[in-house]
Every structure is written in C-alpha cells, then in structure tokens.
Write a structure and sequence with these properties.
By secondary structure, the chain is of the alpha/beta class. The chain is built from ten helices and twelve strands. Strand 6, helix 7 and strand 7 form a beta-alpha-beta unit.
C-alpha cells in the first residue's frame, strides 16, 4: 500500500527507489518523450511507493501569470519582471490581470489546459486549501506575495515584511517618537499581519505598549484611503507624532491630511511609506520608506517555477527577500510637548 503522498520526496530518492538515474527521473517528471515506456513505469511505481505526487505530463511551453489587480507601478513591476524572465527561458506568457479576474474560479481548470506548463500567481485571493488542492494535482506553480500563510509544501516568494516594518519603526523610535500611528493594510493579509508584528516588536524594544486607537486598517491601501485613515489619527485628542503608512500611496494621502491641518512634515509629523515606488521620490518632502525588491520577486518566482517544471526538488519552498530602509526627508526628531 502506498504511503500518504508527500512533496518532500526528492528526485534523488525517487531515482534510488526506481533504480534509474536522476536525469531519467527528471525527464519523466518533465514529460520528456525520450524515455522508454518501461522506464517511465518504473518511475511511476517508485513515486507511488514513496507517496510522492504523480506528475502530470505536460508539453505546453506557456506559463499562466495571474494578477487580480490593476497593473500599476507596484504590480506592473512584478509582472514585467516575471514576463521578461520567462522570455529568457523561452516560455510564452498567458496573462490574466485586473480587478475583473479577482472573483473568477480559474485554478481548477489550469491542470487541464495542455498549453500550460505552470503558473505564477501574484497575491492570489484563493484560500490556502484551494492552493493546496491545485498543488495535489501535480500542477507546478509559484505564489508571489501570498495573501495568507501558504501551506508548507507550496512554493512562495515574498519580501521580508516583518523586518522591514521593524526597521522603519525602530528608525522612528530612535528619533524619539513614542506615539506612532499605523495605517495598515487589510487585516487578513499576511503582509499586514507581519508588518504590524514588526512594528510592535520595535515598540517593545523601547518599552512602549501598542495603542489600539493608533492602528487604522485600509481595505485598499491607496492615497484616498491613506487620507481618510490619517484624518482619523490626526484628529485624536492625543494625536501621533509619527505615522507609518502601509505603502507609499497611503503616505501621499497622509501628506494631504497633514497639510489640511497646517502640520509640517517632518517638523510636526514624521511620516514613512513602504515599497519605494516613484511616488516616494516625487513628494515634498520625499518619503522615508522601505524598499521592496519588486523586480527580484518576479525573477525569483520564475527561477523556482522552472525548477518545479523540470521536476527538481525545491528545498527552500518559502523564500523571503530582504527589504531596505531608505531614509529621506519625511522623518525627523519628535516634536516636544
């Protein structure tokens, strides 16, 4: 009887079990036609005995790239990087993007599309269970910036949100700020949770407890939402001396709310963004922010996908890329009471 299927079986293990070479196993798992049928059967039986996922033979050279958001500066940079890297690998791109594709059930049909060799899913709205079901069908894919904690055996690439947020709050506490407002993203997003945890960690280092009234969530973090959230924070009886925004777009909205109240940045209010988009260098003052390696997220996702499509074992399934604190003119010493 076969054991419970596991994705942790390596190509080397399968080769040893089947009595064939690693290269032969890779060709079988990649659907290469230059393998004798009896050899294929040896590998299939070994996979079954080991409880490994039985691969779907696929001859398609296209990669499905899905981004259920408008391809603006943030998502556009990731998608462009994915497309350029796939082209270097000789792969065609099937792109599905924009708000209209967000509610569509597309995952179920991907393994049945013989033109597709794999997929890159950017901030997918589906649950971890739905993504795991796709993985169990042997379809290779990689998630970029997962919305929820990805299953253990699912390949995912993201930025180091916790350390990025921790570093930017530590920068503010180093300037003497203790009452720091947070404009967070949607509460269910993994990035939002990690960043708030990083923020609280930096506060704990200076003996400050989180204040619930200083945290405002955005459903869609953009300039308008940032303005609305900042208005709530700045109109508190005891307003913050600094605000960390979920992204640079939200930061632009904070600047407008501060200007409407006659507050100077950074003399009266320090402000930070996240992402380091062109907007962060277009404001006055320019935004202190956290640089995400957006293009590298796309390149790393394709690198992982190519290995999965070739049938190779991938040990580092969850990859976090380092962020960088970029200090500009929007942060300064905390004002005195």
């Amino acid at each position: 009887m076969a054991r419970t299927r596991s994705s942790r079986v390596t190509v080397r293990t399968i080769a040893a079990e089947a009595g064939v070479s690693i290269a032969t196993v890779s060709r079988v798992m990649n659907g290469n036609g230059q393998v004798a049928e009896e050899t294929r059967e040896l590998v299939r039986r070994a996979l079954d005995r080991l409880g490994a996922p039985i691969p779907v033979r696929r001859g398609g050279d296209a990669v499905y790239v899905r981004c259920p958001y408008m391809l603006t500066d943030y998502f556009g940079l990731i998608v462009s990087s994915v497309a350029e890297t796939l082209e270097l690998h000789g792969r065609r791109v099937t792109l599905s993007a924009g708000d209209a594709v967000r509610g569509k059930d597309v995952l179920h049909g991907l393994p049945d599309d013989r033109s597709l060799g794999g997929a890159v899913l950017i901030l997918p709205p589906e649950s971890g269970e739905e993504l795991a079901a796709l993985r169990e069908r042997g379809f290779p894919f990689v998630v970029v910036d997962p919305r929820t904690p990805p299953p253990r055996d699912l390949a995912a690439v993201s930025a180091a949100h916790f350390s990025g947020a921790r570093n930017v709050t530590a920068h503010l506490t180093g300037l003497g700020h203790r009452r720091i407002g947070v404009i967070g993203g949607p509460a269910a997003w993994l990035a939002s949770q990690a960043r708030l945890a990083g923020h609280n960690s930096a506060l704990a280092d200076v003996g400050v407890l989180p204040a619930p009234e200083l945290v405002v969530r955005d459903r869609e973090p953009d300039s308008a939402a940032g303005h609305a959230a900042a208005s709530l924070l700045l109109d508190l009886p005891d307003p913050p001396t600094a605000i960390v925004a979920f992204n640079d777009k939200s930061g632009v909205g904070v600047l407008r709310a501060a200007h409407e109240r006659g507050l100077r940045v950074p003399e009266d209010l320090s402000l930070t963004g996240f992402d380091d988009l062109y907007l962060s260098r277009s404001t006055l003052p320019q935004l202190t922010t956290v640089r995400q390696p957006l293009a590298e997220l796309g390149r790393m996702a394709v690198t992982l996908l190519m290995r999965l499509m070739d049938g190779h074992a991938v040990e580092a399934l969850h990859v976090e890329l380092a962020t960088e604190l970029v200090v500009r003119g929007s942060t300064g010493p905390a004002r005195r009471a």
